[in-house]
Design brief:
Order of helices and strands: EEHEEHEEEHHHHHHH
CATH class of the largest domain: Mainly Alpha
Number of domains: 2
Number of helices: 9
CATH superfamily of the largest domain: Alpha-helical ferredoxin
Structural class: alpha+beta
Strand order of the largest sheet: 2-1-5-3-4
CATH topology of the largest domain: Fumarate Reductase Iron-sulfur Protein, Chain B, domain 2
Largest sheet: 5 strands, mixed
Length: 235
């Protein structure tokens, strides 16, 4: 079949304004959008710029707006998105070139929530690792699946209006550590989340949940953070 790609283009070195360019190529229904981008770059227009790495839905580097939805290009199949495909960069972040956006602010917000394990207590007397029960692990297992692709945060209307809003990805990371029974920085993280640009900016739109390529229940996780802030209960 023939597939038509309408791709957002912007090169700050030569363009005063962004525009779209259209490409037509042969494809099969099981081709991924990433495959089509590679074909355009390799055989039609070598100036096209986009991010990709593993191409297996693990690294999260190729998150894009595809037909108006945030998706990973390596997971979006032609049979699911159709033969006329509009491809754009993620919203809410500055475009560096074509489909590449500046993730600096995204990762600054991520670092705000102390995105690492904190435990300053001595190790158990037997010298073994700090243990937790299956139930304790299950409490935060869902949010360990985040790959930091940015699809959730850049689908959020609150983030579009306030780039200093921590955003769903950072809040998920906070959830992963706050509910980890071995971590000792939950109170500090909850204090950070209580600031103006923390969970208060979440209006439960559910865009983030729908955009997540790992099918994480992000809105539910943010709701659990709100409840923890109110009750102080981490169980």
């Amino acid at each position: 079949m023939n597939v038509t790609l309408k791709i957002f283009r912007f090169n700050p070195e030569v363009d005063k304004k962004w525009h779209y360019e259209t490409y037509t190529l042969e494809a099969v229904e099981t081709d991924r959008v990433l495959d089509l981008l590679e074909k355009v770059k390799g055989y039609q227009d070598g100036t096209l710029s986009f991010r990709r790495s593993c191409a297996h839905g693990v690294c999260g580097s190729d998150a894009l707006r595809i037909n108006g939805r945030n998706l990973l290009a390596c997971k979006a199949l032609v049979r699911d998105v159709g033969t006329t495909i509009t491809i754009e960069p993620l919203l809410g972040l500055k475009v560096v070139k074509d489909l590449i956006v500046d993730m600096t602010k995204f990762f600054e917000n991520y670092r705000e929530v102390i995105p690492y394990f904190v435990n300053n207590s001595p190790l158990p007397a037997d010298g073994k690792e700090r243990l937790q029960s299956p139930a304790q692990r299950e409490r935060f297992d869902e949010t360990t699946k985040c790959i930091l692709c940015g699809a959730c945060t850049t689908s959020c209307p609150s983030y579009w209006g306030h780039e200093s809003y921590l955003g769903p990805a950072a809040l998920m990371t906070a959830h992963r550590f706050i509910f980890d029974s071995r971590d000792e920085a939950a109170a500090e993280r909850l204090e950070i989340l209580s600031e103006t640009n923390g969970v208060a900016r979440c209006h439960t739109v559910f865009n983030c949940t729908m955009a997540c390529p790992r099918e994480i229940q992000i809105t539910q996780a943010i709701g659990e953070l709100k409840m923890a802030m109110i009750t102080g209960n981490l169980d």
